[in-house]
Every structure is written in structure tokens, then in C-alpha cells.
Design goal:
Strand order of the largest sheet: 3-6-2-1-9-11-12-10
Bound molecules: adenosine-5'-diphosphate, aspartic acid, magnesium ion
Distance between the termini: 42 Å
Oligomer: single chain
Radius of gyration: 23 Å
Strand content: 25-35%
Largest sheet: 8 strands, mixed
Helix content: 25-40%
CATH superfamily of the largest domain: Acetylglutamate kinase-like
CATH topology of the largest domain: Carbamate kinase
Structural class: alpha/beta
Length: 408
Amino acid sequence: MALIVQKYGGTSVGNPEKIKAVAERVLGYSRQGHEMVVVLSAMSGETDRLITLANSVQDQPDTREMDVLLSTGEQVTISLFAMAVKTAGYDAISFLGDQIKIRTSSMHTKARIQSVDTDKVKGHLAQGRIVVVAGFQGVDENGDITTLGRGGSDTTAVALAAALKADQCEIFTDVDGVYTTDPNICTSARKIERISYDEMLELASLGAKVLDIRSVGLAKRYKVPLHVRSTFVETEGTWVVEEDKAMESMLVSGVTYNKNEARLTISRVPDKPGIASRIFMPISDAGIVVDMIIQNTRAGDLTDMTFTVPRTDYKKALEILKKVAADIGAEDISCADDIAKVSIVGVGMRNHSGIASTMFHVLANEGINIMMISTSEIKVSCVIEEKYTELAVRALHEAFALDKKDTQ
Ligand code: ADP
Ligand code: ASP
Ligand code: MG
């Protein structure tokens, strides 16, 4: 008998029929004697719908109220799921984040989990119930509802698995594992059987939304093996575990894309000490995470600074930047939110030259202009026009022969 935490994403619980099917699948494990904790997302499209509602009422919605609103999506699925289990003649009980004290920071809409109280969950498991928990939400020290950021239900599941010392944490979704790139935009994408936490962290941070990056970070820290698999077929998925020798050692292991960023440029800024700090300090004080930064020099002691921020923080960052520009005497601000970042990732890149130039060559061949570049030991990212994303991903996947194992 094992203690298993399973998380089912939005598509998996997208309507009542699917919720009933998931309940049946979970009951299969219960009947084998396993203790089951089930974390659910909102029905697919629901969180987007709620965000649109908020935007139609307030231009930049108040983040505390946004969390009160967004947390309702998961409330619907967990209660329906518990009803489905009861209909099948078994017992289940659903909980919102604050009911089982998933304590988080107070940074509304992107809160971080600080602690989880497992007493209540364990008590109900001991009484033979399936415990159903709302993903993506928690409560801060003031008793206010918080949410964890998009895709945050994965993180709820891993945090619960770590706190409960579960034997297994499984992430059920609409694809049957982690692929070399998004299988929904590249038909030759190949499923990876085992991947290390570090490589998965890199893929997730660069846009592979199949796992929320914070869930991978937590899994690594607490050594929780993750199994990413399909809700709709029984096949084995992908294991995210500590690095071992049996893993694939590809030069490039994946291609990712991220359409959730926006670009801001502040031009003709006086080029003197302290300028970068005056630009980025107020932005970080507002809780906005800056991703790529490029500075270039102009004649006459002037410089330009271009950077990217999450698209959700774009308007807020722009307002801050306008204020800063007036203070420091910058002459111009430009911005765009129709950009995308495509990246190639692979730990094997560490000891090889020429990978970045191959990437630039592939994009050039497709007539795609590169606006920004950033590299690290194990990744190369390029910012391009959003409309070329799919083309770029497919061309890179093919150029690095990712559809075939062990060919690089
Ligand atoms: P859920 O609602 O179950 O959490 P998500 O939509 O968050 O599901 O994540 C699953 C999606 O992630 C897939 O449908 C796929 O389009 C996308 N995806 C992006 N990159 C990858 C990848 N490398 N491997 C698998 N899926 C990926
Ligand atoms: N419902 C939330 C979202 O759509 C959380 C999740 O699905 O993980 O982002
Ligand atoms: Mg997700």
C-alpha cells in the first residue's frame, strides 16, 4: 500500500463526464489499497475566463481580489469530483487551500508556498477517504486567499507530496509525457523516458509548460520523483528524477518557446554609473521579474536598454518605466508584446562550440529576424516575432535531429 498524490490538469477535468472518468481512474488505485490525495485544476479555459471577467471590470485588476476570483475555478472541480466519488459508492472529501493551511507568501497572483499542514489530510486518509485538494491556491498570514501563478496546481501537488512524504507524485495531463518539444506544435516531437530535475528545470523555465517550474524546483529539493503521464491513456509517461547514467545524453535535448513575455526599450539614456540600478530597482520593488536584458552603447555618452518582463506585468512595468524615464532624462520608450522567446536546451552543450551559431543559421534560413539573444552554459534563447514561433520551433527541432535518439 502506498500514499500517492495525483494531480489532474484542466483538460483532464474539463467537463462533468471527464471528472467522472478521472474519479473512476483514482478509484482504481483506491481499490488496490492505496491512500489517495488528488489535486485538481480548474476546468480548462476557466481561469482564462475569470481573468477576462476581471479585466472587463478593472483595467489592472486589484491582485487581492483577483485571487479571490481565480481561486473559485478549482473550488468547482474539487467539489464535483468528491460528488463523483460518492456516487460510485466511495468516500471523498474536498478542501480549499486555506482549509488545509497551505500557507503562502502574500504576493497575490504569484504567491509562494511556505508550509503545508498535513494533519487534517492524514486524518481523513486514515478514515479511508480520498482527499481532494484545490490546486493553485493557498492562504497568507492575514487569512487572505492567494494563488500561485499560472500552472500552479503542479506545485500544490509536489508540495503536498513532499509534506506527506508520499511514495509517488503523478502529474496527469493531456500529453503522455515530457517531449523534446511541445508535441502539439511539432508532430515529430519525441517522448523522453527519463529526464533529470536540472534539465527539466531549464525546459520549464524556458517555456515547456507541461510542468510548472516551481513544482520541479520543489521536487528536486525534496527528492520527490515525478511521473508526468496522460489522463486518457494508461501508458508509462516521463520520470523526472535525479540525474543518472542511463539518461539520454544529447547535445541539445529540447526546444522550447515562451509567448508570455513582452519587450520594453528605454532609449538615449545617459550612460553613467547607477543608471541600470535606477531603471531596474523600482521594477523589482514592484515584484516584476525581468528576464533578458540588453544594453547597447550609442555615440555621445548615451545608451539604450532593452529587457523583457512577463506579459502579465507589462502594463505595470511600462508605467514604472515612464516615470523613471522622466527622472533620468531618457528620450524615448518603445515596447512590444507580440514577441516570443525560442530556446534550445541541453546539458551536453557545455562542452561544445557552434551550437548557438547553428541556431542563428537555422532561424536566418527561415527568414526570421532575431531581436535579442541570451546564452548560458546549457541554453541559447532568441527573441523573435511571435508569429514565427511555430516555424522556428519546428525548424530547430529538425536541425538538431531531436526526433531521433542518440544521433547528435
Ligand atoms: P494541464 O492543464 O494538465 O496542467 P498544461 O496545458 O499546463 O496541462 O501542460 C500540458 C501542455 O504542455 C501540453 O498540452 C503541451 O502542449 C505543452 N507542452 C509544452 N512543451 C511541452 C513538452 N516539451 N512536452 C510535453 N508537453 C509540452
Ligand atoms: N487553473 C490554474 C491555471 O489555469 C492553475 C493550473 O491549472 O495549474 O493556471
Ligand atoms: Mg499545467
